[in-house]
Amino acid sequence: MKTLPENIQIVIFDLDGTLVDAYQAITDSINFMMRKLGRPRQTLKMVTRSVGHGVEGLIRCFIEEERVAEALKIFRAHHDQRLRRKLRIMPGARALLANLKKRGCRMAIASNRPSKFCHIIIEQLGIDHYFDWVICADAVKNAKPAPDVLRAILKAAKLKPAQAVYVGDMTVDLLCGRRARVFTVIVPTGSSTLAELKALKPDRIIMNLQKFPSVIF
């Protein structure tokens, strides 16, 4: 088992599936797009399993390449409004953020979502003030599982990988953390199954965010 860093200066969170459940809003927008393009309706489970690789990656799960640009425009216009109405913060997330803030820990978000939607989410839920940095896939060269978002946050914070902990819910988060050499805690509350996560041997697995303080304190 990998040793927890001794001098943690920052906790970096993934957003969807880790801090926030926006899967119904995503599904609604996917089905709006599908209806406009004359395509079959998708289930919440199918959409949830497809989330995590950025919005274009999500669209490509359902639409052929030559119509991705058209589909993306439809999706984004709908999602801008739907996202504001169908959001749920994960159990324990708000208390955890308050606890970390009280302890003087800096925090950041590293997401494959576009920056615009990340900011809508955290502002709508009233948790934006907890984060010192929000860096998304559209602000770096490569999305997760590449380590770019984590490296960008560490650079902005002037910290080394050994001073950070990353919390995510997917195999792409696990691989991103590993490639950035950041200790990674996985919570199986998102798109990846527990079996998929365990197969990659994360640094730690916790079943919910309420367990996180026991890992680092």
Per-chain topology:
Blueprint: E1 10-13, E2 20-21, H1 23-36, H2 44-50, H3 54-60, H4 68-82, E3 88-89, H5 93-102, E4 106-111, H6 115-124, E5 133-136, H7 148-157, E6 164-168, H8 171-180, E7 183-186, H9 194-199, E8 204-205, H10 212-216
Helix pairs in contact: 1-4, 3-4
Describe, in plain words, how this protein is organized in 3D.
By secondary structure, the protein is α/β, with parallel strands linked by helices. It has 2 domains: 10-21 and 88-216, HAD superfamily/HAD-like (Rossmann fold), CATH 3.40.50.1000; 23-82, DNA polymerase, domain 1, CATH 1.10.150. It contains 10 helices and 8 strands. The chain has helices spanning 23-36, 44-50, 54-60, 68-82, 93-102, 115-124, 148-157, 171-180, 194-199, 212-216, and strands at residues 10-13, 20-21, 88-89, 106-111, 133-136, 164-168, 183-186, 204-205. A 6-stranded parallel β-sheet has the order 5-4-1-6-7-8, with helices on both faces. Strands 2-3 form a two-stranded antiparallel ribbon. Strand 7 (183-186), helix 9 and strand 8 form a beta-alpha-beta unit. Helix 1 crosses helix 4 and helix 3 (54-60) crosses helix 4. It starts with 9 loop residues before the first strand and ends with a helix. The model has no long low-confidence stretch (mean pLDDT 95).
